[in-house]
Design goal:
293 residues, five-stranded mixed sheet, 9 helices
């Protein structure tokens, strides 16, 4: 069995041409260097250096040259391994994050900026999908608008309340009674994820809006409201920016708020990069103002 410290000694003797100078370079005694080379020669079953004696430098033997070639390769890979581990501990590694469009437009940019500032060499990979069931396969973290279920740990980031979005002349200022939505032309997201929860909530109260257009895109949703196609029920995160062409109304009673979670596989040890991302997401969510219209 060849030990890395013995192979490092072999390389030092070959580079320095002397057991004494190799000992000084490595911080060993000369006798320790001699013992390590002797162990290598026993393992390799042959001499690794010709020792002419006196001031003449030692010369590596053909057997020693073969061993030295492989030793340098192993030492290089060992250095790369150590460097990789240190980079990992420092957060300079890879992170795979699942997301959906509202988070991609609001919370996630702050998380990415924080990771880039702290770990310029990190590899960040994002995967955006609108889905009813979170699939964390291959992901370190996933933003999701609901609880994770079995085998998933989670951190609740915030409650995202629903508002009624309309043109400024559509409703009087202030809250709008929920029953006003019955028969009202509405632009909406597809009936998946939390949109399905909202529509079930309305049906349970015999409130049936007229859904005139459905789109996955928040910008398309708001554009259709501006165009006068109808009002919209939207999570507050989807309309964070001030827009004089739109007004936001609270509903009475309120619709169930959308809950935003950060999920990860249960029992998984976080990399320093993932742990930092969790703290950045927590901070970004705490800094949001979802109450001002």
């Amino acid at each position: 069995m060849y030990e890395l410290r013995h192979l490092a000694t072999l390389a030092a003797v070959a580079d320095e041409g002397s057991f004494g100078r190799a000992a000084s370079r490595l911080g060993y005694t000369q006798s320790s260097v001699s013992q390590q080379i002797a162990v290598l020669e026993k393992t390799a079953r042959g001499p690794l250096f010709d020792r002419p004696g006196g001031p003449k430098p030692v010369r590596i033997t053909p057997l020693g040259a073969v061993l030295l070639q492989h030793a340098r390769d192993l030492l290089r890979r060992a250095d790369e391994l150590s460097d990789g581990i240190e980079r990992f501990r420092a957060g300079d590694s890879r992170i795979d994050i699942g997301t959906f469009q509202t988070v991609s437009n609001t919370l996630l940019p702050q998380v990415i900026r924080g990771l880039r500032d702290a770990h310029p060499g990190c590899d960040i990979r994002l995967f955006e999908e609108e889905t009813d069931d979170p699939d964390l396969t291959g992901l370190d973290l996933m933003f999701f608008d609901g609880c994770g279920g079995d085998g998933i740990d989670q951190l609740k980031l915030l409650d995202d309340p629903y508002v009624l979005v309309a043109r400024p002349d559509h409703f009087p200022a202030g809250p709008v009674p929920l029953e006003t939505l019955d028969g009202l032309p509405l632009v909406a997201h597809p009936p998946i994820c939390h949109q399905a929860v909202v529509e079930d909530f309305l049906r349970a109260r015999t409130i049936r809006p007229q859904f005139v257009f459905r789109t996955e895109g928040n910008e398309a949703l708001l554009a259709m409201v501006r165009a006068g196609l109808g009002a919209a029920l939207a999570p507050r995160l989807a309309v964070l920016r001030d827009d004089p062409s739109l007004t936001l109304h609270e509903l009475t009673p309120e619709l169930p708020a959308r809950e935003i979670f950060l999920l990860w596989q249960a029992g998984r040890t976080h990399s320093p990069l993932a742990a930092h991302a969790i703290e950045l997401a927590r901070s970004a969510a705490a800094g949001l103002n979802l109450t001002d219209g």
